[in-house]
Each structure stands twice: as C-alpha cells, then as structure tokens.
Amino acid sequence: MSVPQFVPHNTTETTLPVADAATVRREAFALVRGDRTAMTMVVLLYCCAAASGMVAPRLLGTMINDFQAGRPTSRVDQLALVIGVAAVLQLVLNRFARYAGQRMGERALRRLRDQFVARVLELPTSLVERAGTGDLLARSTGDVAVIGTTFREALPQVLISVAQIVFVVIAVALLDPLLGLVSLVGLPVVLAVTRWYLRRARSAYLAEGEANTALAGSLAATVDGSGTVEALGLRDARIEASESVAEHTVATRLRTLHLRNVLYPVVDFGQALPVALALVVGGLLYQHGALSLGVLVAAALYLLQLVAPVETILIWVEQLQRGGASFARLAGVGQVPAEPVALADTPADDRIEATGVHYTYDGGRPALRGVDLVVRPGERLAVVGPSGAGKTTLARLLSGVEAPTEGTVTVGGVPLVALPTADRCRRIVAVTQEHHVFMGTLRDNLTIATDEADDEALSAALASVGADWVDSLPDGLDTPVGAYGTGLDAARAQQLALARVVLADPHTVLLDEATAMLDPRTARRTERALAATLVGRGVIAVAHRLHTAHDADRIVVLREGRITETGTHDELVALGGSYAALWNSWHG
Ligand SMILES: Nc1ncnc2c1ncn2[C@@H]1O[C@H](COP(=O)(O)OP(=O)(O)OP(=O)(O)O)[C@@H](O)[C@H]1O
C-alpha cells in the first residue's frame, strides 16, 4: 500500500487561533452546501459508476451457472458484451464524476480562499503584528495548498470509494443475505482502528507540522544571523538550540509513524477477513446445495472489490486529516473577534488624550507607567527619551494600533480602539519606514487610501510630495508597479506612501523612524516630501534626532515609561533637566 507524500504544515507558534472540530465540520458543510446542485450531481455520478461496477461479477456468476446448466453459448456472448459495456460505462462515469468533483472542489476552494482573505483583512492590526506574517502566509499558502489537494484529490477519491463499498455490500446481500452479513465482518475492525487513528492523528499531524516549522525557523534564524553567531561565538549555543528542535521534530514524526504502523496492518486484516470467511461459509453452503457455484464466485469477486476502495480511503485518510487540520487553521482566523464595525460615538473633535495609560508587553516589564498626555488639534508634538523609554509604545497607543493595558486613549472623547480601523485611519495615520508598493497600477496604490479621489486629486497628491517622476512613467497613473511592474526605489516608494497619507487626509500624523534608516540622499528627498505631507496636520513625532524636537510646538520627555518633562524646546533647555542634558550633548 502506498502512502501519499507528506506535505508539511507550515505552522508556527502563533497567537492566531485554530478552530475546533465542531467548527470545522460546520464550516465544511456550509462550504459544500454553497454548491448543492453540483454536490448532488457528483454523488449521483459516483453512485452510477459504482453501480456499473456491480454488473461484471454478477454476470460472471450467471455465466458459470449457465455453463453448469449446459445452456447455449450464444447467451455467454451476450453476457460478455454486457460486461464489456458496463466496464466502459463505469470508466466513463468515473471519469465524469471525478471531473465534476474536481470542479466542485475548485469552486469550494475559491470560496474558502475569498472568505479567508476577507477574514484576514478584518483582523486587528495588533494581532497580525503579534502573529507575524509567517503564520498568516503559512495559512494562506501551505494550508490552502493542502486543502486544495484535499478537495481536488482526496475527497473525490474517498467519495467514489465509499460509494463502491456501499454498492458491494448491497450487491452481496442481494446475492445471499448471509454472505451479505459476512461481508460486513471486517467493517468493525476497520472502523475501530480508523477511529483510533483519526482521534490521534489530528493533534499528531498538527504537532508534526509545528515542529517542522520550528525547525525551519530555527535553521533560518541561524543562517540569517550567521554574522552575529560568528561574531559573538554563539556557534555551540545555536547548534544546541537546533538539535533540541530537531529532536522534538523527530519525536513528532515517530509519533505519526507509529499511528500509521498500527493502522495499516489492522486494516489489511480487516480486508482479508470477509473474503476468507465468505469462501468458508459460501463453500459450506455450496456443499449443502444452499448456494450455486455462480453465486459463490460472484460474491467472492464482489468482496475482492472491497480491497481497492478501502485502500484508497486509507491512502487519502491522511490527506483528509491534513486537510482537516489546515481547514481548522483557516477557519481559526474567523474566530478572532472582529474589530468594531460600527461607530459607537463620533469623535467630537481632533483632540487626542491619553489618561492613566499603562502598557506591558506579554511577560515583560511595564513599558509605560501612568502616562497622561493631551495632544491638541494641529499641535506638533515631539516625543524624546533614551532607548527603551517607551517612545514607540506610546506612539503605537496614540495611533490606536494597540490598546493600553490600563487607562484610555481617546480621540474627540471616543476610545481609539473602539473605532473601526478604516475610520481610525482616516483620523490618525502612522508613517513608518515601511513603504510597501502593492502589485497593481500606480492608481491602485493610491486609491487604497480613498476611493473617492479622481485622477486630478491623485496627481495633486503626488505633486504635493514632489513625485514629479510620475510624469516620465510610460502610462502615467496606469503604470503597473510592485512585484511585476516598474520598480520604485526607496525614496519613490516612500513618496507614494506619503501621497496616500495626503489622500487619506488624517488630522494627525504619527512619525516613528520614518526616515531614520534611509541613506542621507534618500532621507533628504523623503523629508521634503514629508514636510509637504504634514502641512496643516497635527504631528506626533518620535524624535530620534533632536532637531525634530527643536522644531516642535511641544516636547515630552519619556524615561522608563513615564513623562518626566514637558514644554517647548526653550523651556526645557532653560529647565536644565534631562532634555537640556541631551540637547547640550547632541548640540555639542
Ligand atoms: N514587542 C515587544 N515585546 C516585549 N517587550 C517590548 C516589545 N517592544 C518593546 N518592548 C520593551 O518595552 C520597552 C519600551 O520599548 P519602546 O520600543 O517603546 O522604547 P523606545 O523608547 O521606542 O526605544 P527605542 O528608541 O530604542 O526604539 C523596552 O523595555 C522594550 O524592551
């Protein structure tokens, strides 16, 4: 018996949930119900194909009886012809059934994929960040591929096999009820061991998938950080870490191997049992004249027909398991509580207020400890402080990406995290150094921010950030950009991102390292574009370079998660505190 190639799950440690078995069942049925007519058609075709397969043994039995009774050979020819026609019919019906099944599977897969993408887009940003792109990518690629194989191959194969088994049992029972009963003796054995296997396999394969991902991740981390490993002499530590992950992977593989090693031999026994028993019982009945030779041969041939579908089911049962586990991971994304979709209240104004804000990362020390801060509409606020003081954390909370562990952050009196993402992003936009260019046209990349803008508004937004290079593009706004289109360098990509901000027209822009990592030439161009973007808006800037702070309306100094100083540049310099010390040391 051949075992299908193991396709590893690219699972990873994650904060994204995995759906339980009941949810998987419910969602899988809902998916199939969405294509009910096709499903009925496929089942009908499989049943007709299975029924055609019942013709040959029955007629062979009749032939034998005819021979014994000395009937004319012309009847044998007719029977042989019918057997031939039935065999061809079975072949054709099977072919159509598989084709229809695969098409149905493709449609179901498409619906599933659309559903998944829609759910991912609704996920809270903070959760996506915590889960990391790896997990979502693994679910949308690896898991979708596994489900694809399950729908295209496993389900049709299993369906046809189940139909064959049901028809064989019915056919034998029609020949002789006692032999019909005998044909079922293997069933409890096969069902029991399959049940035993299925109960354990889901968690075992999930564990194996997770271990594989952890191993790949550990090796990739070692390769990616090879310079650091070399420089800090971490070789032995990395080898040790990889070995322990590898050992765990082997243990999980041994577990799934053990499951297969129990399953296959027991099933083989369960298959052989009815054939052997039918020959014994049928032989006795024949000896006592209770059964004709033709019926005995037909029954034995039918029972032999059980072997192939049972094996097919076993070959694909693992794939079904994997499909189930992958489905659970896709469905799990739908179990994340959606972000609020309706506004509870409309913010009264553009004032952003943090009150008694504490924030602690999972298992870490508090990053913010009781921050009170009001950002007035249109104010340019700089947040400064030593590394690890909590600047980025405060910025994330003020942009609403993350909720405070304690306290509130509101805009116009409404908690930021209660606002639907789209609404929040129309009010406050964070500009980072990440400037992704989406696959599509330049226009597509701009209208992500707002679908209300016409070409004139798009061009104006690009012009405002100094993106004059657009005029030299072959198709202007219709030029494809992104992975397969015209490449945009870092500065252009950042200008595109800033043009999006201009189009989104938020009242406040949050800047955290927007230009810190760019090379000086690119940074200069980007800073000019940035300055244009910020005109007329409030700005909260995490200031890594103090000249940003110098130009701000107000500066807050953070130390160990607390605001220690607040004031204008001149006031803080005059105060002679930690800002003055920072300024003096920076200014020389
Ligand atoms: N994802 C995270 N998980 C756990 N702890 C974190 C995480 N991000 C930050 N921290 C911790 O929270 C504290 C505040 O970090 P934060 O990045 O907000 O400081 P920062 O002032 O922006 O520092 P820097 O200027 O170095 O970026 C630090 O002690 C940091 O180690």
From TrEMBL:
Membrane topology: Multi-pass membrane protein
UniProt keyword terms in alphabetical order: ATP-binding, Cell inner membrane, Cell membrane, Membrane, Nucleotide-binding, Transmembrane, Transmembrane helix, Transport
CDD domains: ABC_6TM_exporters (cd07346)
PROSITE patterns: ABC_TM1F, ABC_TRANSPORTER_2
Gene3D superfamilies: ABC transporter type 1, transmembrane domain (1.20.1560.10), P-loop containing nucleotide triphosphate hydrolases (3.40.50.300)
Transmembrane segments: 38-59, 79-97, 158-175, 181-198, 262-286, 292-317
Pfam families listed in its UniProt record: ABC_membrane, ABC_tran
Record's GO cellular component terms: plasma membrane
Domain ABC transporter: 352-585
InterPro entries in the cross-refs: AAA+_ATPase, ABC1_TM_dom, ABC1_TM_sf, ABC_transporter-like_ATP-bd, P-loop_NTPase, Type_1_exporter
Coiled coil location: none
Gene Ontology MF, one: ATP binding
Locations listed in the record: Cell membrane
Domain ABC transmembrane type-1, residue spans: 42-322
Keyword field contains ATP-binding: yes
Name of the protein this chain belongs to: ATP-binding cassette subfamily C protein
